[in-house]
Design a protein that fits this description.
Elements (H helix, E strand, L loop, with lengths): L3 H25 L19 H5 L6 H13 L7
């Protein structure tokens, strides 16, 4: 007889499967990466591996963008 933990595990498995499907769908429609950073004042080269993943910013600019996005994320206001 299934118990509450089995139901939770089934829900987790379904969510993971759904997330994987969404990721695979987005990967096929992903824009190609750029050979150099698209920030106006940067232009640093982007590594080939990151280009294949669709990177449009160099690692330094991406790090700054991630920090900025985290700082201004919804729910972070006091």
């Amino acid at each position: 007889m299934p118990d509450a933990m089995d139901a939770v595990q089934a829900d987790v498995d379904a969510r993971i499967a759904d997330a994987l499907k969404r990721h695979q769908a987005s990967a096929t429609t992903r824009r190609p990466g750029l050979p150099a950073c698209e920030q106006l004042d940067c232009g640093e080269p982007i590594e080939e591996a990151r280009q294949r993943l669709g990177a449009r910013l160099c690692t330094d600019c991406q790090r700054e963008e991630d920090i900025r996005a985290h700082q201004y994320a919804p729910g972070r206001g006091r």
